[in-house]
Amino acid sequence: MDTKEKAKIVGAAIKRARKQRGLVMRQLAEHLGVHVAAIGNYESGKNLPSTENLIALSDFLRVDQGALSRGEVVSLTDEPLADAERVTDPAPPPSGPLDIEVLGTTAGGDDGDFRFNGERQGFVRRPPGLTGVVKAFALHTISDSMVPRYFPGELIYVGGREPVPGDHIVIELFPENEGEVGKSYIKYFVRRTASEIIVSQYNPPKELTFNRYAVKALWRVIPLAELLGY
């Protein structure tokens, strides 16, 4: 069995064991001292846990470590296992401070999703997943080019780590004329080259290319699971 195949079966077993214990990924991440995304990569089979982390996970999930390394789940306790996955913590939803700035936007014209209008619309509550994140803001979508993923009027949170292919992103272009505001877009990040940023949209489906030197800023749209801290 090669490493890629083993990572998939071990990841599936970790996910199954976690669900049976009624745990969420955040709890596994806190136990290992890693980011929630690392647990997601384990469960999806993208990465194989180190021996040290596999042992730690086995202890935390109370399953046999040898069996887990073979992609099997063998419980070490007699307590009943959960029939369904818990997707939220039992505690009341955390309410962070109202300190995420909402930037104002206007329609961007025929070929632009929107433009930043330079105004601040107010503040929204900081989700638990953005605790400690300094560079983050929010905006309301205007265009329908990303339906059914993002609908007009939907509030999205933007910022955090640098965007990579596979992320949804906000692109702001330099203005074409002095005194104007550059066009901005919400798209899916496909790839980048030395001179181009290639993205795609859903409605209608098509691929677009931007000159990297025309791009003023590139931000990542933060997915819901990450906002909630999972």
UniProtKB/TrEMBL annotation:
This is Phage repressor protein C. Gene3D superfamilies: lambda repressor-like DNA-binding domains, Umud Fragment, subunit A. It comes from Sinorhizobium meliloti CCNWSX0020. Keywords: DNA-binding, Transcription, Transcription regulation. CDD domains: HTH_XRE, S24_LexA-like. The keyword Transcription regulation applies. Residues 14-68 form the HTH cro/C1-type domain. Coiled coil: none annotated. SUPFAM superfamilies: lambda repressor-like DNA-binding domains, LexA/Signal peptidase. One of its GO terms (molecular function) is DNA binding. It comes from the Bacteria. Pfam families: HTH_3 (PF01381). The keyword DNA-binding applies.
